[in-house]
Amino acid sequence: MMNIKTIRLTDDIIFSSNSRIAILGKTGTGKSTFFKNKILPHYDSFIFHDSKVENSDVQHDILVTNPKDLRKNIGKYNKILYQPKNIYPADFDAVCKVIFESGIETVLYVDEVMEISSVNKIEHYHKLLLTQGRGKDIGIINVSQRPSDIHNTILSESEHFFIFKLTLDPDIVKIEKIIGSAADEVGYLPYYTFLYADEAEVRKLYDTNLRLYKPSLRDYIAKIRV
Description:
Layout: E1 6-8, E2 14-16, E3 20-24, H1 31-39, E4 46-49, E5 62-64, H2 67-73, E6 79-82, H3 89-102, E7 106-110, H4 124-132, E8 138-144, H5 152-156, E9 160-163, H6 169-179, E10 193-198, E11 201-207, H7 218-223
Parallel strand pairs: 3-8, 3-9, 4-6, 4-7, 5-6, 7-8
Antiparallel strand pairs: 1-2, 9-10, 10-11
Helix pairs in contact: 3-4
């Protein structure tokens, strides 16, 4: 088994490769581009669960479409793109089971987790990855356009949050439990900027090139703890 890596994006954004991460924000705000360009290259091993099943620009070693083939290849290839033939929660749960039982140090990236989770339902092995995966050296990154539509366990177990622009009241109310009064401002964030929170404390506001974002939001930055 490989050693757990420390991933340093900036002096303030530091996490381990087995961390639980949530990336939240409406469509088109820069979530996927940010992840693929700034976070994914730091991982030596990953399973990228692509629920959109589109022509992906994720650099990978092998494309897999079902849990059986994932089980055969998870220890053989480091970078796996998983594109299910059908988006069924049961298929996703089987993927999570393979990863949980594999003994392989890796990270699962879940694109648009609201497709396979809801406010009232989270798959069994998805929950186990969130609650016990760190002890198995397995990281998990959940991405969602609508925080209000996903299970609370996904947010409560996450240790690091990258929060892009959100405009709908239910989403803002839900993340207020994570970042407090700073949630009032997320509807005004420019596109391709995000708030980073670590263990429920808002740190700083960055653009997707990981530069501290200041122009036109000086008053807002003064309100959050930096």
